[in-house]
Amino acid sequence: MRKIALIAAMSENRVLGKDNKLVWELPADWENFRRVTAGQAFVMGRVSYESEDMLFSDRLNVILSRRPQLELPEGFERAPDLPAALDLLADEETVFILGGGQVFAQSLPLASYLYLTIVHHEFEGDAFFPPVDWSQWEMVRSVFHPVDDRHAYPFSLQEFSRILPAPKG
User: Fold this and answer.
1) How many other β-carbons are positioned within 10 Å of the β-carbon of residue 145?
2) pLDDT tens digits, one per residue of 53-110
3) How far, CA to CA in Å, does 111 sit from each of 83, 86, 143?
4) Contact criterion met (CB below 8 Å) for 48 and 104
5) Spatial separation of the C-alpha atoms in residues 72 and 109, rounded to whole Å
6) Domain ranges across the chain
7) Measured CA distances, 134 to 29, 95, 157 (Å)
């Protein structure tokens, strides 16, 4: 069965960012992101794609946009919605959903795995990770990272596996 994994960094009050940017800088989180997602396909919304913090896969990137005229570079494809994006990636063993907030909300019911970086601070923001029914998830891993000379905020790298089977997606 295909693994649909959401990967996000959020504050304790579920903020993902503000003005289409992250509101923190955590180099160890970026290192973890690159390690976890290496060689995998990504799905993201158009706004996330247009962000200066945009991340992309060296394999395949699907951008959700209803704009048929959206021009994309090589290695990127457009899909009008999440089901179409997942159809494009039907042969992928793992698909990473990169956001933003609305895309996470649409894909959370289909996800079988969560990679969440929890920044142990509350921030003001305009993009949020959706509420999660934690009774459906089991923590697989949690690694705490304290404040240090490269990180102004403490954070935890957490992984969760769905306890109850997710609908097929």
Assistant:
1) 19
2) 778 888 889 999 998 888 888 889 999 999 999 999 999 999 999 999 999 999 999 9
3) 13, 12, 22
4) no
5) 28
6) 3-162
7) 23, 22, 16
- CATH code: domain 3-162 is 3.40.430.10
Which residues are CB-neighbours of 128 under 8 A, at least 6 positions away?
10, 14, 15, 16, 101
- Residue 167 makes CB contacts below 8 A (sequence gap 6+) with 109, 110
CA separation for the pair 9, 157 (Å, rounded): 9
Structure confidence by residue, pLDDT tens digits, 118-158? 999 999 999 999 999 999 999 999 999 999 999 999 999 99
How many CB atoms neighbour CB 162 within 10 A? 16
Q: Please tell me the distance from the alpha carbon of residue 64 to that of residue 59, in angstroms, as a whole number.
A: 17
Q: What angle do CA 153, 52, 13 make, to 5 degrees?
A: 35
Residue type, 110: L
Task: Give the span between the Cα atoms of 63 and 45, in whole angstroms.
Answer: 5
